[in-house]
Amino acid sequence: MKFKIVGLLFICLLYTANIIKAQDSTQRWPAQKARDWNARQPWYCGFNYIPAYAINYTAMWDKTTFNEKAIDAELALAEAAGMNVLRAVLQYAVYADDPTYFLKVLDNFMGICAKHKIKFVPALFDDCVFGITFEPKVGKQLEPLKGWYAWDWSPSPGHSMVIDSLAHLKLENYVSNVMERFKNDERILFWDLYNEPTNGGLGSATLPLLKKVIAWARKINPSQPVSIDFWNDNKRLNDIVLAGSDVISFHNYGNKDALQRQVNDLKKYNRPIFCTEWMNRPAHSVISDNLPIFYNEKIGCMLWGLVNGKTQTDLPWGHRPGDPPQPVWQHDLYKTDFNPYNQNEIDSIIMYTSKKTGK
Predict the structure, then answer these.
(1) Which neighbouring-strand residues pair with 120?
(2) CA 136 to CA 161: how far, in whole Å?
(3) Which of 145, 227, 249, 354 is found 20 to 30 A from 31 (Cα to Cα)?
C-alpha cells in the first residue's frame, strides 16, 4: 500500500508539473529569459522592406507579382551596407487565396534573406491605410498615383475582418499555420504580431482581435520572442502591447532628443528593445543623429525603407497630387536605379555595422 501511495503521489506531481509547464508556455517570457536571448544576439541594424516593384504588401507576396530575382538584387544592396535584419508585413489575403503557396513563398523569401545574412521580422497584421484601400484583394494591383504617398497601401487582413468576430476563426488558422510552420526557424529574429494596431481609423475596434492574436501566438509557443510595437500614447492599447511582448519594440520618427527620451522611458521595463520603424528626414529623424543612439544603447533598429519604388515613400505622409514638392526625401535609402539617395548615409551605416558592439 505504501508503494502505491508513493507512486500515486509521483504521478500527481508529474501531472502538476506538466500543467504548470503548459501554463508557462502561454505567458510572456520572463524578463531574464528575454535578456539571456538578447545577450546571444549581435547588434541588429536594418530596414523595413517592401520591394520597389510592389505598391503594397499584397503585391509583394501575390502569385502575379512575387519576384525572387528583384528581391535578391535589392537585399544584396542591404548586405553590402552591412545591414542584417529586415521587417516586412505578411498579407492574410494572399495566404487565404492559397495557403500552400503562401507558406512556400514565405520560405523562399527567408531563403533569400539568409543568403544575404539578414534576419527576418515578420509582422502578421497591419491596420495602416494611406489611400482608399481598406480591404486587400489578391491579383494585379493598381499602379501608383503620382504624388500620393502609399496610394494603394493595403492593410492585413483588412478592416472588415478586424471588426467581424465571426471571421476571426479564419485569422486564427492563419496565425497558427504560419507560426507553427516557422516557430523554430532560426531565420526569424522575432515575431511582430501586429503593426500599429488601431491605426487607419479603426481605433479601439482592433483591440479584441489584438488580444486574440496574442493568445493564438502564445498557444503556438514559438522559440523566437514575440512583440507588438509601441507606436502612440494610447494607454489602453499600450497596456495590452506590453503584456503581450517578450521584447519591447517601438516606432519613433522624431529627432535625436525625442528618440533618446523614449529610449530612456522604455528602459524601465528591463527588457531588450528594438526600434522597428524610424527615419523621417524632414522631421530630423536622420541617420547622422539617430543611428549613433541606437548603436550606443545597443538597440536594434529598422529604418524605413530600402529601395524607393511604387509606394512613393520618398513623399511625406499625407502628400497628395498637386502638393508642393518637398526638398528632401522622407524615407528610403536607394533610388530605383540602386544609386544611394545620400552616399554619406550609406557610409555611416557601413561604419556602424562594421563595429564590434561587445555583445
Answers:
(1) 86, 188
(2) 11
(3) 354
pLDDT-based confidence at residue 16 (cuts at 50, 70, 90): very low
Model pLDDT for residues 112-161, shown as the tens digit of each residue: 999 999 999 999 999 999 998 899 999 999 999 999 999 999 999 999 99
Pick from 105, 96, 94, 107: nearest CA to 139: 94
The neighbouring-strand residues paired with 303 are: 47
**CA separation for the pair 196, 229 (Å, rounded):** 7
Distance CA 296, CA 293 (A): 5
Which residue type is seen at 355?
K
Residue 10: is its pLDDT beyond 70?
Answer: no
CA distance 221 to 25: 6
Count the Cβ atoms, other than its own, within 10 Å of residue 316: 17
**Separation between Cα atoms, residue 346 and residue 355, nearest integer Å:** 15
Distance CA 88, CA 289 (A): 25
84/42 Cα distance (integer angstroms): 9
Q: Work out the mean pLDDT of the chain and round it to a whole number.
A: 93
Domains defined for the chain, CATH in brackets: 37-353 (3.20.20.80)
Give me the half-sphere count of Cα atoms (radius 13 Å) on the Cβ side of residue 274.
33
Q: Which residue has the cell 529610449?
A: 263
Question: d(Cα 312, Cα 190) in Å, to the nearest integer?
Answer: 28
Whether the CB-CB separation of 296 and 359 falls below 8 Å is answered with: no
Residue type, 98: D
Strand 85-89 to 226-227 pairing: unpaired
Contact 197, 119 (CB under 8 A): no
Cα 171 to Cα 211: distance, rounded to the nearest angstrom: 13
| H helical segments located in 134-206 | 159-163, 168-182
Look at the block and give the residue holding cell 502578421: 124
> Do 155 and 124 meet the contact criterion of CB atoms below 8 Å apart?
no
Burial of 302 (0-12, 13-18, 19+ CB in 10 A): buried
Residue 300 grid coordinates: 536594434
